[in-house]
Amino acid sequence: MSVRHIFLFLFSVLAVAATAEEPRGVLRDPVAWLQRASDQMNLRMPGSAPFHMKVSFQALPGIELNKKPQILSGQGSYEEIWVSPKQWRREVSLGSYHAVEVAYNGQRKFQASSDFEPGRVLMLLEALLNPVPRNYLSPELNDIPLAWKIEDHAADKTPYVRIGRSIMGMQHSFVSSYTFLPSGLLVLSNEAGLVTGRQDDIVFAGKVVARRITVQAGGQEVLAADVVVEAADKIDPETFDIPGAPASPGRTMRPLHFYETSKLSLSVDFSILGSSPTASAIRQVIDRHGVPRETELLTGESKDGSAALMDGLRRASGHPAKIDNDPCETVIYGYY
User: What is the per-residue DSSP string for 273-286?
Assistant: First the structure.
């Protein structure tokens, strides 16, 4: 994303920054910036104020380079009523997909119209529930140490701080980065080409809530969401009572990550890469049966080469990831 685009995001949040600005250089530990942003944004901590959140979102196809589109797109909605970490209700709809998940009376239940949760739903929930990945805050969750560096920048005299790290792939290095205002407010995140922007912030019960969230990949928008949050008053207990048995660990609306699941086992014929690298970052959603269901390009220098690569990755087969020995859906990123 260009400096101009970064500035536009920064400018949009300057007027509503939630905390007093600190001079650049006060925090020189990159993880401290991530932790401060997480603390500012986490609505779901024990003892936090109950809330009612409504989200309307537009899911867009992205770059599939495939004649038969896989990615479910269109208008969607998400609603969450949160009372405590042990009492909440989440409901989402996108096209033909509809799901409800509740936690109540020591049980978690999950109902869905399909065994496969669309990737754009996972993308939205990632932005809402995990604005800062938990493994970045807890080094013990990573297989290898994460080396971050911190940089001070300015766009049209607007200061900002960016922390970043390189991710090595088979042929290339890609970058994860997080951009903050001096106050600690998170403005942009970039995970291997998946760029999430946050705008039009408000403060709810002492926490920062972005009322506009956008996600871009390959230079085009793939998700746009408008968020409304308000106090949750006079909640009917029946709201949390849905029929059915408790859900197994792998049946959940929540995105599951590598550090909490057993490793996915996929067999891919890497002869599809050919003799020259494609410089591609690719996102895949793998279902609970270990089958690739959505494959899209996040970054790539050669669309022809990327298309052949993605074709091969769609034919991968293997065993799904598991959580507590229960098959689960997961999202993986590949660098080729």
Answer: G-SS----EEEEEE
Rounded to whole angstroms, the Cα distance separating 83 from 155 reads 40
Of 239, 260, 227, 229, nearest to 326 (Cα)? Answer: 260
Q: What is the Cα gyration radius of the chain?
A: 20
The answer to whether the Cα torsion of 160, 33, 18, 9 is positive or negative is positive
Q: What is the 3-state secondary structure (H, E, C) of 139-204?
A: HHHCCCCCCCEEEEEEECCEEEEEEEEEEECCCCEEEEEEEECCCCCEEEEEECCEEEEEEEEEEE
As a whole number of angstroms, the distance between CA 42 and CA 22 comes to: 21
Q: What tokens does 108 get?
A: 């978690």
> Strand locations in the chain, DSSP E?
51-59, 74-84, 87-94, 97-104, 107-112, 149-155, 158-168, 173-180, 186-191, 194-204, 207-217, 220-231, 265-267, 281-286, 292-299, 317-319, 321-323, 326-328, 330-335
Tens digits of residue pLDDT in 80-123: 999 999 999 999 999 999 999 999 999 999 999 999 999 999 99
User: Do residues 299 and 193 lie in contact, with contact meaning Cβ atoms separated by under 8 Å?
Assistant: yes
Q: Which residues of the chain have pLDDT under 50?
A: 1-25, 170
**CB of 90 closer than 8 Å to CB of 253:** yes
Percentage of the chain exceeding pLDDT 70 = 86
| 271-324 pLDDT tens trace | 666 555 567 889 999 999 999 999 999 987 666 778 888 888 898 888 999 999
Structure confidence at residue 204 (pLDDT): 97
CA distance 77 to 55: 6
